[in-house]
């Protein structure tokens, strides 16, 4: 096959890689082989052939589309490739420029340019937003204070000690077990062969246990701004420790930050989250955000008996009707819905706000937290030993 | 036995699928063609009811290959997916050998762990040669298993071989055609995706869906089919928890034919809405005036084309 075609595909792959698609050298080889194999006749076929090799996820399809158009637009490069499938030699000085142009715009398509930070007058809202709910959507970025080494170590220790309620679930897989109740034929058979098959010594097995996936849905609106850093640090440490943790942030819109939180360094992870989320410390639309979660994500992340941790103060400005039905759906699609509410900083808290009253009947556990300053408090509030007084009905009764 | 040849171009692939009554768009044909040509597994993702499983069935039918289906579920393990020893028969063999006496121990062990006592499950079955050519292995709804099984699949899918400790390595002489489907109830690991060609099966366009209805529900009158497709397409634009797939469209068209309908009317739609929508919330939302509004739009849209 012509060296130039391979070269062009390699450049294109590099452009895609710059735009964020995970493409290894193996994929480039595959692509060259595929283009050879497919006997390309039309531009469309060329497009779908490369698409089949390079795209591994539905949302990458759009980036690919952008990059393809920009990259192969030049001087009808693609027609020439197809027409001859023979060496195409672009002018020397053009080559290095090409991937850059493609990469830049495709990258822009992937990560929209950062919104300008709001003018200083908005800061006032942020300051006194703790007990208010703003209907307005404020788009702004957020800077987190750096973690100290001590903080990071302490967080790891605390997470290791955390036992969530209902945390070990039997799976349908079996592991060898001395006290098991089921006979393990394979091991029994092997064991009895050892002494010539004279006597059968029974071996047993039992169900393997596994922690269920955790899905955290975390409110980052103005009224929760004080706690965001603790939450995110907690979730980062949890993501590091456990296998299946998904994190969503919402204020007025819902963002999935699971991949950002997988960065090993907590500062790095928080910075990535900050970049990804557009509505820090703005208003709250709990109902709409949960609706979006239910529609787009619930079926993808709530399988296999997930526990949902909902961090929010429940102060909803929009109507509570939508909130009630969406919370109810969320409740029905997960195994356990735990609501952690940090607004309860006074002992005399009563569940009076309409949003709170709409949500309470639909959660399995209501974890109050009076003073959320540190990770210690958060872990203590979530831990299984704190499960008394977590029945949401108690809180409803108190007001009634 | 003369099995049909593998298609040699994307056009041939399209024709082949069309022979099997599968109306595919160009992108899907391209992916399938490449997968056959390069001998790579295909990972098909998409909403429920867009015809992912059907692709495997059509391929096996039109290529004259055996279809081996592995339905995934949580807790699926090697014993039920790959192979199992037939313990009862093995025990029996040992007892018989003892009764006869004089069989050397090494020989006995070799006999016991031979192919005779091996129970083949779908994956091992797919690696064995068949006269009509390598079979089609359908690994259905892989998102339902756990990550452990997915990891096991990596060896199978990259080298098409399976290692049985007592027996040795079984390697397929020719790679089977592997089709993996997923409903995205969880994300498939990147390592597995990397080994496959990926394709997102989307809801069809109105034009393609109409072709599908013609092929699969030929009894439906022309006007009714057009209305049914237009109505379903409009329904997919609504804010529903689960919008109807192609399977639902076909069910609905068939149901309406059984009810002797020649055109859609609001009463009949509301009576048969359960065929299209499977969530109570969605049905409630659509009942009444919503149906009427969509239907009016549909009638207007369908008319001028006639």
Describe the structure.
- The complex is a heterodimer of chains A (400) and B (306).
- By secondary structure, chain A is of the alpha/beta class.
- Helices cover 47% and strands 12% of the residues of chain A.
- A six-stranded mixed sheet of chain A has the order 6-5-4-7-8-9, sandwiched between helices.
- In chain A, a hairpin with a 3-residue loop joins β5 and β6 (254-256).
- In chain A, α1 (3-18) crosses α2 (25-38), α1 (3-18) runs parallel beside α6 and α4 (60-73) packs antiparallel against α6 (97-110).
- Chain A is globular, with a radius of gyration of 27 Å.
- Chain A starts with a helix and ends with a helix.
- The relative contact order of chain A is 0.09.
- By secondary structure, chain B is of the alpha/beta class.
- Chain B folds into three domains: 10-82 and 121-201, Rossmann fold (3-Layer(aba) Sandwich), CATH 3.40.50.300; 83-115, no CATH class; 206-296.
- In chain B, 51% of the residues lie in helices and 13% in strands.
- Chain B contains 15 helices and nine strands.
- In chain B, the strands form three sheets. In chain B, strands 2-5-8-1-9 form a five-stranded parallel sheet. In chain B, strands 3-4 form a two-stranded antiparallel ribbon.
- In chain B, α1 packs across α2 (26-38), α10 (206-216) packs across α11 (222-236) and α11 packs across α15 (289-302).
- The radius of gyration of chain B is 25 Å and the shape is elongated.
- The model of chain B has no long low-confidence stretch (mean pLDDT 89).
């Amino acid at each position: 096959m012509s060296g130039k075609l391979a070269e062009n595909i390699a450049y294109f792959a590099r452009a895609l890689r710059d735009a964020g698609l995970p493409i290894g050298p193996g994929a480039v080889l595959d692509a060259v082989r595929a283009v050879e194999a497919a006997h390309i006749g039309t531009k469309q076929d060329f497009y779908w052939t490369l698409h089949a090799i390079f795209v591994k996820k539905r949302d990458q399809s759009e980036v690919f589309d952008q990059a393809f158009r920009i990259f192969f637009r030049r001087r009808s490069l693609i027609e020439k490739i197809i027409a001859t499938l023979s060496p195409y030699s672009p002018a020397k000085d053009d080559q290095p420029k090409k991937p850059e142009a493609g990469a830049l715009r495709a990258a822009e398509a992937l990560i929209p340019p950062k919104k300008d930070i709001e003018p200083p007058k908005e800061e006032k809202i942020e300051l006194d937003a703790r007990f208010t709910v703003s209907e307005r959507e404020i788009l702004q970025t957020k800077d987190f204070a750096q973690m100290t080494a001590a903080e990071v170590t302490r967080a790891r220790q605390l997470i290791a000690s955390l036992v969530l309620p209902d945390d070990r679930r039997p799976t349908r897989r079996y592991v060898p077990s001395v006290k098991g109740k089921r006979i393990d034929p394979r091991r029994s058979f092997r064991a009895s062969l050892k002494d010539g098959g004279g006597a059968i010594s029974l071996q047993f097995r039992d169900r393997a246990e596994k922690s269920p996936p955790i899905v955290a849905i975390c409110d980052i609106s103005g009224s929760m701004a004080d706690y965001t850093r603790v939450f995110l640090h907690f979730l980062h440490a949890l993501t590091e420790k456990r296998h299946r943790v998904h994190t969503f942030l919402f204020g007025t819109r819902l963002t999935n930050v699971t991949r950002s939180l997988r960065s090993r360094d907590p500062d790095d992870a928080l910075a990535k989250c900050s970049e990804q989320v557009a509505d820090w410390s703005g208003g709250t639309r709990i109902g709409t955000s949960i609706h979006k979660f239910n529609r787009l994500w619930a079926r993808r992340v709530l399988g296999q008996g997930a526990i949902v941790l909902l961090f929010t103060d429940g102060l909803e400005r929009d109507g509570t009707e939508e909130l009630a039905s969406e919370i109810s759906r969320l409740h029905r699609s997960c195994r356990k819905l735990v609501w952690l509410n940090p607004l309860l900083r006074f002992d005399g808290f009563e569940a009076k706000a309409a949003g709170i009253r709409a949500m309470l009947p639909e959660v399995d556990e209501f974890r109050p937290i009076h003073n959320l300053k540190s990770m210690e408090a958060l872990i203590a509030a979530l831990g299984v030993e704190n499960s008394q007084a977590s029945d949401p009905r108690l809180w409803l009764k108190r007001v009634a | 036995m003369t099995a049909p040849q593998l298609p040699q171009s994307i056009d041939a692939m399209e024709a082949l699928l069309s022979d099997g009554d599968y109306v595919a768009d160009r992108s899907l044909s391209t992916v399938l063609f490449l997968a056959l040509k390069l001998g790579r597994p295909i990972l098909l993702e998409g909403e429920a009811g867009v015809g992912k499983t059907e692709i495997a069935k059509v391929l096996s039918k039109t290529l004259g290959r055996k279809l081996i289906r592995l339905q995934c579920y949580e807790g699926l393990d090697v014993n039920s997916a790959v192979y199992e020893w037939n313990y009862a028969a093995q025990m029996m063999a040992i007892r018989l050998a003892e009764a006869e006496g004089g069989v050397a121990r090494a020989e006995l062990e070799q006999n016991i762990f031979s192919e005779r006592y091996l129970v083949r499950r779908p994956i091992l079955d797919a690696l064995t040669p068949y006269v009509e050519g390598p079979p089609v292995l359908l690994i259905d709804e892989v998102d339902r298993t756990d990550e452990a099984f997915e990891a096991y699949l990596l060896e199978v899918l990259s080298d098409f071989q399976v290692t049985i400790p007592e027996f040795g390595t079984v390697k397929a002489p020719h790679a089977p055609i592997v089709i993996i489907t997923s409903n995205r109830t969880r994300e498939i690991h990147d390592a597995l995706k990397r080994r496959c060609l990926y394709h997102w099966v989307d809801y069809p366009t109105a034009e393609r869906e109409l072709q599908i209805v013609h092929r699969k529900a030929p009894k439906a009158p022309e006007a009714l089919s057009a209305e049914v497709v237009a109505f379903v397409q409009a329904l997919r634009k609504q804010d529903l928890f689960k919008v109807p797939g192609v399977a639902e469209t076909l069910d609905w068209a068939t149901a309406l034919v059984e009810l002797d309908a020649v055109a859609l009317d609001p009463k009949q739609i509301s009576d048969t809405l359960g065929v299209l929508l499977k969530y109570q919330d969605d049905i409630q939302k659509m009942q009444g005036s919503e149906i009427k509004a969509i239907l009016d739009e549909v009638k207007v849209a369908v008319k001028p084309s006639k």
